[in-house]
Amino acid sequence: MMTRTLDLGGPVHYMDFGGSGPTLVLVHGLGGSHLNWMMVGEKLARHARVFAVDLAGFGHTPLAGRSASVHANQALLDGFIQAVSPSEPVLLMGNSMGGAISVLQTARQPQRVSGLVLVNPAQPRAEDSKLERAVLMQFALYAIPGLGELFVKRRTAKYGPEKLARGMLQLCCRDLSRFPEELVRAHVDFARERHERMPWSNDAFVQAARSLVMLLQRKKQFRAMERGIRVPTLLVQGTEDRLVPVANSRELARVRPDWTYVEYPGVGHTPMMEIPDAFLSTVEDWLAGAGRAAVGGSVKVAKAS
């Protein structure tokens, strides 16, 4: 695997995990980067050509005068897809905010997407959904102009990059010991780098969070996009997710009973980091079955060992 950069109205960083065959593009969530896929990227490359993009304002991709909103990053993702796979549609795999952006991309440019894997995707709240009070308050603050920026700035100054990185991982999974130490260390090291060299990172986070809240408040419109998707789709969800309650994905699975839906008991917001082997097995089973058309139906899927 190696890091690369494209010029798409400004530099766009991505990780090239290698592989051959159909193209698979991995899209991280809010506050994430290509590092979110480090436990599964190389093994996914046994079945496809795999790229993990850093959205504008995240990872090593600077704002460079661009917006970090979900709509702007959907446009960036569309440009990235055209650059890495100009003649064939791609399979999109998105976690959290990256899942919502992948839905936007598929709804707006269906000819460029052959299939979807939605990993605990950000989505409108279900009728019986319950979000932790602390998490709800944070996102309420992000949504308020001026106050959101002040909150993030003060939080950064108070806790510093290492504590914030560990806190973010703990929000994704209550028990940090479930994450491999190499993954935790990579995220902590990168948080320090962003703190020291990327002064735009806090603004990007707030822009993205605020736009995501606004997008998901329009439940009727978002559900219309989900109902209109016509590509094979795998939806996976951890039952102990503190950011995307399992009730949300259960409701979506009822809206789209034709999609493949898999729940992971006791797992949080990032199955690809918490239970990479089980996650890979789920994806491979889907590619060999209901999702076969997403990779052209001609890819021989061998189980990862």
Q: In total, how many beta strands?
A: 8
Beta content comes to 15-25%
Q: What would CATH call the homologous superfamily of the domain at 2-129 and 218-295?
A: Alpha/Beta hydrolase fold, catalytic domain
How do the helices and strands follow one another from N- to C-terminus? EEEHEHEHEHHHHHEHEHH
- CATH topology annotation of the domain at 2-129 and 218-295: Rossmann fold
Count, helices: 11
Briefly, what CATH class of the domain at 2-129 and 218-295?
Answer: Alpha Beta
Percent helix = 40-55%
Secondary structural class: alpha/beta
**Main beta sheet: strand number and arrangement?**
8 strands, mixed
Biggest sheet, strands in spatial order?
Answer: 1-2-4-3-5-6-7-8
Task: Describe the protein's architecture and organization.
- The chain is α/β, with parallel strands linked by helices and 305 residues long.
- It has a domain at 2-129 and 218-295: 3-Layer(aba) Sandwich (Rossmann fold).
- It has helices at 41-44, 70-84, 97-108, 133-142, 147-172, 181-197, 201-217, 219-228, 246-255, 271-274, 276-288, and strands at residues 2-7, 11-18, 23-27, 49-53, 90-95, 113-119, 233-238, 260-264.
- Helix 2 packs across helix 3 and helix 5 packs across helix 7 (201-217).
